[in-house]
Amino acid sequence: MDEIRHANSLPTTILRDTREQRPWTFDGCAVETRDVTLSTGDYTVPTACTHDPESDTYHPRFAVERKSGHDFLTALTWERDRFSDELRRAAEWPHPLAVVVETSWETLLRNRGCMAWRDIHPNQVVGTLSAWTRHYNVAFRFAESRRRAELCAFLLLVRHSLRRREQI
């Protein structure tokens, strides 16, 4: 059965923050990416943003924050205040800031991969995530690989676009 893409139902463009160090390209996802400055998050869709032409900054009301395993652990420890500021910026959004981590939950809990050489106990990770999800408008997703994390982010952006279409 052929899929028909209805107007405004699926995103055709994904906005990617210019500060992304290892950006996802969404190869095979039938979307284009456009590099812009986002006030919060790393990826969003144009319909979820307002644009400030004076600063040339997009202010999303929904976004995906990408974290490698190493970046995620750094956000929990040394850069905790900076990351908490990011979470605060999403406090008033209608949907949570989605943080997609490029490592599995199992890897973190078993002290493997990015956790193997870190001075952080898995219980600290669990406690911090529990507190952040209670206090901030955030939802964490963990994926076994970078590619699966990228696809997870794409699906979150599609889901947001479909929800928005239902509300119109």
TrEMBL record:
One of its GO terms (molecular function) is DNA binding. It comes from the Archaea. GO terms for biological process: DNA metabolic process. Signal peptide: none annotated. Residues 17-146 form the ERCC4 domain. This is ERCC4-type nuclease.
